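Researcher: I'm preparing a figure for a lab meeting and need a structural model of a single chain. I don't have an experimental structure, so a prediction will have to do for now. The sequence is pasted below. Please return the structure as tokens so I can convert it later.
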Amino acid sequence: MTSIREKPGVALVIGAGDATGGAIARRFAREGLTVCATRRNADRLEPLLAQIRADGGVAHGFGSDARDEDAVVALVEQIESTIGPITVLVFNIGANAPSSILQETARRYTKIWEMACLSGFLNAREVARRMVARGGDGHKGTILFTGATASLRGSANFAAFAGAKHALRALAQSMARELGPQGIHVAHVVIDGAIDTAFIRDNFPERYARKAQDGILNPDHIADQYWMLHRQPRDAWTHELDLRPWIEKF
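Model: Understood. Here is the structure written out token by token.
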């Protein structure tokens, strides 16, 4: 059987935003994988796709609602039938929207759960079905979920987000136990700390000032760790990886 290391295939990045998701897409493209990147608005992917192509990579962009089961099924089918086999899925939708529990609404709570958890289930299920069906032995593919501090504890004003992220972590744990023996590496990445984005720069200047001390996360360095997870040998797979700047408290 051809090793996954010898046949890169496709990296599907769900939620390829301007920071972490985009950095992950660029990292996998540099390693020779064909990148399929998604956002709700396909037009917002154009700068990322242009950069990957300018650097010599291959990239395709898709506007897709990750919460829509029919859309997810169609997306995976389209990629598998017209572009290539998906060898790595990165689920990177956040939905971090704080609100007091006293003002939270059922509609908003449900939407956050759909974005941060249901969409992870839908995309991971469809990709896992394809990976398992390929048969054979060895490492058939990698599924990586982006978590957060809220995956581990619920802070004040983050009931909806924490609930969704806890559920996503449980999904990753269950999938890892079922699919690991079938050759699929499932990992969950806890990212704790501010990330170097325009949002942090413009809204939290004091925190952004810590960048000079390596006090906020560099998206490219996060992406390096996702690539590392994908390349791990089966006898030493990491299931959960915790990434945080040295100044962050546990």
